[in-house]
Amino acid sequence: MKLLTKVIEKKAKEQYELGSDLSQKVVAKFFDPCSAWTWYLMNIDPSDLDYCWGIVKGFEVEIGSFSLSDLTKFRNKLGIGIERDLYFKPMVAKDLWGKLINNEHV
């Protein structure tokens, strides 16, 4: 599956200057279908599409950078790669953060 569409890429690039500001939108959700790990894309470096910034829910909920190429190359023990949630609707990062911290479904 293609993780970045042109629309998602454009929105993420436009927010790059906002860094970790939680007032920006989360524009995409990526997940491992065989684990609880999820990556929420807030922005991406316009000059390096591999450098993504967002919220990651793994063992903990954190804000930080992640590599698009790492997500693209990853295969779990069943050989399945990372997927993009086709039904995810962009939402304000602060709202998403609150839901994740309170263990609410997103």
Describe the structure.
- It is a single chain.
- Helix content is 23%, strand content 33%.
- With 106 residues, it is of the alpha+beta class.
- A five-stranded antiparallel beta sheet has the order 5-4-3-2-6.
- The two termini are 21 Å apart.
- It has one domain.
- The relative contact order is 0.23.
- It contains three helices and seven strands; from the N terminus they run αβββββαββα.
Please identify the structural class as seen in this structure: alpha+beta
Low-confidence stretches: none
Report the principal-axis shape.
Answer: globular
Please give the domain count: 1
Trace the largest sheet across and list its strands: 5-4-3-2-6
Helix content: 10-25%
Termini separation comes to: 21 Å
Compute the number of strand runs: 7
Total helices: the number is: 3
Mean of all residue-level pLDDT scores: 96
Main sheet record: 5 strands, antiparallel
SSE pattern, N- to C-terminal: HEEEEEHEEH
Which strand-content bin applies to the residues? 25-35%
Q: Could you tell me the radius of gyration in angstroms?
A: 13 Å
